[in-house]
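STRUCTURE REQUEST FORM
Protein name: Cell division protein ZapA
Source organism: Holtiella tumoricola
Requested output: structure tokens
Priority: standard
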Amino acid sequence: MTKNKVEVIIGGQVFALQGNESQEHIQKVASVLDQKVLEIHKQDPMHKLSSAQKHMMAALNMADEYLKMKTDLERFSQELEKCNAENLALLERIEEMSLEMNRLKIMKRRK
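Status: completed
Returned output:
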């Protein structure tokens, strides 16, 4: 697979990146990180944090969000499995009731 090269701006600095993803995807990822760095910058009006510290804080915040989303995804997946199992049980119950209803109709006709 060809490596895509793209220049991005993160925290006011230009970085030359390359990866297997499309240039648009790489730009989007860099844009998300740039926004996180900007958020950190806004929270540091006295400019006490270095550029590297801002980037590190942004990366930590993103890692935190990632782990929380991963936990949510696992929980949602478990809930989905539970719902699917309940739906299957309900469908089986509907089938049983339908068969019973048909059996009762046949018995009623015979009388």
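Reviewer notes: The chain has one domain: 4-110. Helices lie at 23-42, 51-110.
Form closed.
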